[in-house]
Amino acid sequence: MRLRRAGLILLLLLPGLGLILVLIGSVIVMAFGQSVGYFALTGESGFSWEHWREQLDGRLLWRSFQYSAYIATTSSILSVLLAYPIAMWLRRPFRGSLFAGALLKAPLLVPGLVAAFLFINVISFHGFFNELMVWLGIIDRPIRMQNDRNGYGVIFLQVWKNMPFALLLLTGSVQAISDDVLNAARDMGAGSIARFRKVILPLTLPAMQAALVIIFIGAAGDFSFQAVAGPTTVNSMAQLMVRLKGEFGGYHEAGVVAVLLMALALFGSVALAGLTRVAVRAGMKV
Amino acid sequence: MRASVINRILIVVLIGVCVLWLVIPFAMAILWSIVDPSQAWSYPDLFPAKVSFQRWIDVWQTTALRDALVNSYTLAPSVAITTLLLATPTAYAIGRFEFPGKTAVQVLSLLPLVVPGFVIAVFMASLLLNLGLYNRFASIMLGHCVLFLPYAIRILSVSFALVRQDLIDAARDLGASPWARFHAVYWPALKPGVLAALIIVFIQSIEEFALAFILGSPDFTTVPTILYSFLGFNFVRSNAAVVSLILVVPNVALMLVLERLLKSANPAMVSGKG
Amino acid sequence: MRIRSLSLTAAAAALCLSLPSVANAQQNFSDMSWDEIVAQAQEEGEVVWYVWYFQPAYREFVQPFTEATGIEVIIPEGTHDGNFEKMLAESGRDEGDIDVIALGGSRHALFDQSEYYHGPLSEILPGGDQLTYELEGVDTNGYGVAFWGNQTGLAYNPRLVDFEDLPQTLPELEAWMAENPQWFGFNYENGGSGPSFVQSMVRNIMPDIDTTDGEVSEERLASLAPVWDWFLDRSDQFVITASNADSLTRVNDGEFAVVAAWEDHLASLQAQGEVGDHIAFYIPEWGHNGGGNLNGIPLNAQHPAAALVFLDWLTSADTQTALNQRFGVAPMHPDADDSAALVPNEMRAYSRVWTAQPFGDEIRNQFIENVALEM
């Protein structure tokens, strides 16, 4: 009976989880394998560190790695920082709060490529922003803002697109805190900042971590925002990978980038979640 | 009283911000999409010198937009239905059974969300090349199904958990047939989740760029890949404006439907918890 | 980077060796009369043309062919890399999706056309002896036929700079850039107009480097150092753009006075009303690369006869004249009229051949490593 039940559950898991494991598993194996010389489409297949050595020697890869790490960290932290006060504001329903929530979540409906395109239109040399500033007489000649070197455009887009997502997670979590808990804290003499630090932050930590991790991973693997609005002097990891693959099927080289990108996504997000936890704990004690 | 005044001020500020970051960008896109081809909009003109809907006609008649729309709108429903079918058994197991390793199963089912999309795209392409598989539609469909399974599994397992065991038992005691039991007990609890899963997967598939771009290259286009070609190598701002608007409008409509569905369903699903 | 480029060359060589295993006996068009080919083409009824640029414009442009012959021309979307990869990947199949494929001249150095294409076209096409089969220093031996000549140079906005003030020599360019900082833009990826400018600078700053030699070696790469210093010394005077199209859009916006561009690309964007007609084009006296695209018919094409009839039409003097009028390109038929180009004929004297591969690609890689990453 137990065995039959276990068999049934395994069978049920097969089409969903099974398929995920098989496909994502083989994709990961492919990336690792090709980075060390296996699965060659042309030429000889066999173990070799050659692709790793040649990629690690060039500065291109490291620049991309640092750049993607920088974009991912800044975007995820900024999105969450911005989402917190708004989630607190929308915690208790009031007249117009539904409308406000809907407006704030609107960017979720806009696909990333469209968002990037709209943004470029606004900040381009001939775009709305420059025209307005010139018209108002604040500047004489339009300012060049497109593809700025520090990737502020990309970060802005990431926050634009991801803040609503962080807001979604945080609102749910903040609303779940019962008034009793907050009232009790107030009765014990905690001011609003102390209540936020000692009650709300710890109780919403899991939602905050989830938001940070998902935004971090998404931004680390970004291609579209970077391709449209990013600096032209550096590639993001995904962009570099696609470029290496595009130029005559350099799958081995792309494999190296893919492995590093997965490592960045994994360790970066774990580190970020861990640090947040430490920071929140420290905030409780002070 | 004071709180409501503050709220009102904040809402006005919010509307101001939204005008800045939603209305103006879309207004610009509409303007660019109606620039008449006979007269370019160039420096230092503040507004297009001549406007018409010629761009819309040109884009419709000469670009591969029609193919892309056909591809996207055949792909997305196929992906949505297949994903739903694939997710249901797993969701049923998670929602209705207790078993050792259940947490692990739930975490592992999120795997497609944590591997960057372009890694999946590039190495799935390489996998298919190694296996000698050519069918682009089938490859993208398979990829999309796996990519969006986590959403469907998550939503449906919550729905399955909401089905009340006492009602199932009662129906069985009353001698209801399996179909009648499903119709009377399961379906009412599952319906919002099923529809929500279908819509979410549908929208994600329409929007998805990485897999469609890499696996569809060079000749299988979807709406996002055609938009990318207008944004990148063949940057044609007016065409991009037309395609952007075409990509956004059905999305908004579907999301409005979704919003209504989710309101009638469990709030835990909306907040992504559970 | 150097080693990677070498391994790419090796991969290219390997691909060339792994010949398409075409099992079916291929039709031999050399033995057929042109009338027989036309008859077969009518039966085939359609031709699928993989051309990697201007697809929307081409879909309009080929209408007269369909009206005259009843043969439908299907033009799928696709990129240069993507189409090329597809052609190689499909070559093992009995039937491919591609009937005609357009590739840039230098791309043909990467594979042996006689192993992949029907031909030689020079012997099958009725006026085949008048056509061009060699571009950008690569000879296809009659298997790839040129249909599109293009030229890189500089696009400029006459509202911001007069033609008389435009730089024509290296010292003039240096002086102009110093006087007008940030008014000049070019790309290094997503298109060849910027890389062509970089190659021109290599030629002008280091006249001793033989650009017809494609060899890549440590010494040759090291000898490029003065070129990179030249760029780095002026890194606050020029702007790197995202693509060919980005450069042209921004010169139209008034952001730049001068950008690196393709003549045909500018003409096409002007025809579409994307860039104003006032934007002009010139080839500076220091020389910019020119080249073009050739068409071939893969051995596993499903409509090879229709493909031949289509190529006959596309390369005819009349069609070439029409291409010149529509896109401003250099015609590839000796009898065609080339009066509609964006530049006067005497300026064509400053056209140069692209640097031989793989050295040409390596110049771009070195530019990224030594200039772009340093900025």
Quick structural gist:
The complex is a heterotrimer of chains A (286), B (274) and C (375). Chain B is mainly alpha-helical and 274 residues long.
Explain what you see.
The complex is a heterotrimer of chains A (about 290), B (about 270) and C (about 375). Chain A has helices spanning about 1-35, 50-55, 60-90, 95-105, 110-125, 130-135, 150-175, 180-185, 190-220, 225-230, 235-245, 250-285. By secondary structure, chain A is mostly helical. The N and C termini of chain A lie far apart (about 55 Å). The model of chain A has no long low-confidence stretch (mean pLDDT about 90). By secondary structure, chain B is an all-alpha fold. Chain B is globular, with a radius of gyration of 23 Å. Residues about 265-274 of chain B have low confidence and may be disordered. In chain C, about 40% of the residues lie in helices and about 15% in strands. Chain C contains 16 helices and twelve strands. In chain C, the strands form two sheets. In chain C, strands 1, 2, 3, 6, 7, 8, 9, 10, 11 and 12 form a ten-stranded mixed sheet that branches. In chain C, strand 4 and strand 5 (about 140) form a beta hairpin. The chains are: A mainly alpha (about 290), B mainly alpha (about 270), C alpha/beta (about 375). The interface between A and B is large, with 86 and 84 residues.
Sheet with the most strands, sense and barrel status of chain C:
10 strands, mixed
Radius of gyration of chain C using CA atoms only: 21 Å
Overall pLDDT confidence of chain C: 88
Q: Percentage of helical residues of chain B? A: over 70%
Largest interface: A-B, 86 and 84 residues
Distance between the termini of chain B: 37 Å
3D shape of chain C:
globular
What's the overall average pLDDT of chain B, rounded?
87
Gross morphology of chain B is globular
- Helical fraction of chain C equals 25-40%
Element-by-element helix/strand order of chain C:
HHEHHEHEHHEEEHEHHHEHEHEEHHEH
Element-level helix/strand string of chain B: HHHHHHHHHHHHH
Q: Give the tally of β-strands of chain C.
A: 12
Count of helix runs of chain C: 16
Question: Roughly what fraction of the amino acids of chain C lie in strands?
Answer: 15-25%
Largest beta-sheet characterization of chain B: none
Number of helices of chain B: 13
Q: What gap, in angstroms, lies between the N and C termini of chain C?
A: 19 Å
Q: What is the number of beta strands of chain B?
A: 0
Portion in strands of chain B: under 5%
